[in-house]
Specification:
This protein has about 525 residues and is an alpha/beta fold. About 65% of the residues lie in helices and about 5% in strands. Helix 7 packs across helix 17 and helix 16 packs across helix 17.
Length: about 525
C-alpha cells in the first residue's frame, strides 16, 4: 500500500499543478482575447474571412475559415474572431501531455504539460487569431502520430499522421518543415527506414497531399502569388550575418535558463537517438526543427518577426527534459530546472502583462516612450471613430492595407474600404490579394473615378525614410485633398488623418515626389508638421 501511494501521490500533485496553471492561464488569455484590438495581420486575416476562397496571396485558407466559423457562432468582434484559436491554443499542452505520457510515463506527461504552459512561446499561443496556432497544433499531432506509428502499425495512427499534415498544409507554407524533418527521420533513423515498408506510410502521405489541393488551386488562380511571396519576395536568399543572433532571440523568446536547459536536453537526446524509442523520434524532430530553422534563418527573411518559427522543435524536448533531469544523480540539474521554471514564469508574466497594457489605453500610454510600444494593437478604435462623423457618403480609402483592414473590421465591413498601393502592401504580400478583390487603386478608379472619397492616412505606418517618400506621393492619389479630422495618440507615436477629396481619373505617376511636389502637397506638409510637433 505504501509503494502505491508513493507512486500515485506525486502523479496526482503534478496533475493538480498542471490543471491549476492551465485554468489560471486560460482565464487570462480569454480576457486578453476578448479585450485586445486586432493587430494588423489579424485584421487582414479577418478581411480574408469575408472573401471565402481556396487560398490567399499570403496564406492557405484555414486561418480565414476558422475566423469565419468563429464569427458565425459568436458574432462579429474580437472574441468571435479569436475563440477558435483560443481553444486550439488550450489543446496544445494536452497534446504535449499525451505525447510525454506515451513516450515515458504519466508523471512525465503532466510535467511536460506544465512546462508547455510555462514556455512563453507556447503558453501565450491562442490569444491572437494567427496561423501559428493551428499550425503548431497540427505539427504536434503529427509528432504524436509519428511516435505511435514507429511503435505499432495501426491504421488510425497513420490516418492521424496524414490528417495532421494535411491541416498543416491548409494553414501555412511552413508545413514544408515537418515534411522535411519527417523525411530526415525516415532516411537516417533505423526505425524511420523501416517505415518505408509499411503501406500506412503511403496512405498517410496521400492524405497529407489533400492539404495541398487548396494551395495548388489558389496559386493557379493567382498565377503563383502565394508561392512567389513566400519563396521569393519575402526572402533575400543570401547570407546575412545579423541572423547569427538567432540564439539570442530564441533565448529571449524562451527565457534564457529554460532555453539553455532545452538545448542541453537536445544534446542529450541526440546522443541517445540510437537507443530507439522514444529517443530517436524526439531527437530527429526537435533537433531537425531547431537546426533547419537556424540554417534557413541565415539566408531567409530578416525583416519580419520569426522567433516563433522553431516552437515545434521545443515541444518534444519538454517531454524529455524531466526524464533527463531525474536521471542525473546530483541535485544541481534539478536546481537548474527549478530556476529555469521560475524565470520562465517571470518571462511569461511580463509577456502577458505587456499584452494587458496594450489592451488598456491608459496603460499603453506608459509604453509610449519605449521600444516595446505595442504599435500594432493600439489606435485603431480611435481611427475608426473618426470615420462616422466625417463621412458624407464618400468612398472610404486607406493609405495602406493594414489601416484598410482595421477600419473595415471596426466598421463591420458595412462598406468596402479601399487601399492605396502602398509599399507596405507589397512588402507583406497583400498587393495581389487586394487586386483580386478590386480593393486596390485600380479597382477604386474603375468603380469610383471622379466620385468623392474620404482618405485615411496613417502617417506613422513606416520608418522615417520610407514614410518621407510615400507621403510625398499621396497627393497624386487624391484630387483636391482637404483635411477634415486628425487623431494623434501616445505622444504622436500613432497619427491618423482624414482627407476629403475626389478619386483621380487616371493612374498616378510613379517614382518619388520632387521637393516642389512635396512642398505643394497639403498631406505631406501636414504630416511633417505633426511629426515636428510630436518630436518637441
Amino acid at each position: 500500500m505504501r509503494d502505491r501511494v508513493s507512486v500515485v501521490v506525486p502523479v496526482a500533485r503534478w496533475r493538480a499543478a498542471f490543471l491549476t496553471v492551465f485554468a489560471v492561464q486560460f482565464a487570462i488569455k480569454a480576457w486578453l482575447a476578448a479585450t485586445l484590438a486586432p493587430f494588423t495581420d489579424e485584421a487582414f486575416y479577418w478581411l480574408e474571412s469575408r472573401h471565402p476562397a481556396w487560398g490567399y496571396s499570403d496564406l492557405p485558407p484555414l486561418t480565414a475559415r476558422l475566423i469565419r466559423g468563429g464569427e458565425a457562432v459568436a458574432g462579429h468582434g474580437v472574441i468571435g474572431m479569436r475563440w477558435p484559436f483560443l481553444l486550439l491554443g488550450a489543446v496544445l499542452p494536452w497534446i504535449v501531455v499525451r505525447f510525454a505520457r506515451e513516450a515515458f510515463d504519466p508523471r512525465t506527461g503532466w510535467q511536460a504539460g506544465l512546462l508547455c504552459l510555462l514556455l512563453p512561446l507556447a503558453g501565450t499561443l491562442g490569444v491572437l487569431a494567427v496561423p501559428d496556432v493551428p499550425l503548431t497544433v497540427a505539427i504536434m499531432l503529427a509528432v504524436l502520430a509519428l511516435l505511435r506509428v514507429t511503435a505499432r502499425d495501426r491504421l488510425r495512427d497513420w490516418l492521424l499522421l496524414g490528417g495532421a499534415l494535411a491541416l498543416a498544409w491548409a494553414t501555412h507554407y511552413r508545413a514544408a518543415m515537418p515534411m522535411l524533418v519527417g523525411l530526415l527521420f525516415a532516411l537516417a533513423a533505423p526505425r524511420g527506414r523501416a517505415l518505408w515498408r509499411r503501406p500506412g506510410l503511403w496512405l498517410a502521405l496521400a492524405v497529407a497531399a489533400l492539404g495541398l489541393v487548396p494551395l495548388a488551386i489558389s496559386n493557379w488562380h493567382q498565377h503563383g502569388a502565394g508561392l512567389s511571396f513566400q519563396l521569393v519576395d519575402r526572402n533575400p536568399w543570401r547570407f546575412h550575418a545579423t541572423a547569427l543572433v538567432q540564439p539570442l532571440e530564441q533565448a529571449l523568446a524562451c527565457t534564457p535558463l529554460l532555453y539553455a536547459m532545452l538545448l542541453w536536453a537536445g544534446w542529450r537526446v541526440w546522443r541517445r537517438r540510437r537507443e530507439g524509442a522514444p529517443w530517436d523520434v524526439i531527437a530527429f524532430v526537435s533537433m531537425g526543427f531547431l537546426a533547419l530553422y537556424f540554417l534557413l534563418g541565415l539566408f531567409a527573411d530578416d525583416v519580419r518577426f520569426r522567433a516563433h518559427w522553431p516552437l515545434p522543435g521545443y515541444l518534444p524536448l519538454l517531454a524529455a527534459l524531466p526524464v533527463l533531469v531525474a536521471a542525473k544523480t546530483g541535485a544541481s540539474a534539478r536546481r537548474w530546472l527549478a530556476a529555469a521554471v521560475f524565470v520562465a514564469v517571470l518571462g511569461q508574466g511580463l509577456g502577458l502583462a505587456w499584452l494587458g497594457m496594450a489592451a488598456t489605453p491608459g496603460a499603453a500610454r506608459r509604453l509610449a516612450d519605449l521600444k516595446a510600444f505595442p504599435y500594432a494593437f493600439v489606435g485603431w478604435r480611435e481611427a475608426a471613430a473618426l470615420i462616422e462623423p466625417a463621412r458624407q457618403g464618400e468612398v472610404l480609402v486607406a493609405d495602406n492595407f493594414a489601416l484598410a483592414a482595421e477600419l473595415a473590421f471596426f466598421l463591420d465591413d458595412r462598406q468596402p474600404v479601399y487601399s492605396l498601393d502602398s509599399p507596405l502592401n507589397v512588402k507583406h504580400g497583400r498587393a495581389p490579394q487586394l487586386a483580386l478583390w478590386h480593393l486596390d487603386e485600380a479597382g477604386l478608379r474603375a468603380a469610383h473615378a471622379g466620385q468623392p472619397m474620404l482618405l485615411a492616412v496613417e502617417e506613422t505606418a513606416q520608418g522615417e525614410r520610407e514614410r518621407f517618400a510615400w507621403l510625398g506621393t499621396i497627393c497624386r492619389r487624391i484630387d483636391g485633398p482637404r483635411e477634415v479630422a486628425r487623431v494623434s495618440l501616445y505622444d504622436g507615436r500613432k497619427r491618423v488623418a482624414l482627407y476629403a477629396g475626389t478619386v483621380p481619373l487616371r493612374m498616378p505617376a510613379s517614382g518619388d515626389a520632387s521637393p516642389a511636389e512635396r512642398g505643394a502637397c497639403p498631406i505631406w506638409l501636414a504630416s511633417q508638421a505633426a511629426a515636428d510637433s510630436a518630436a518637441r
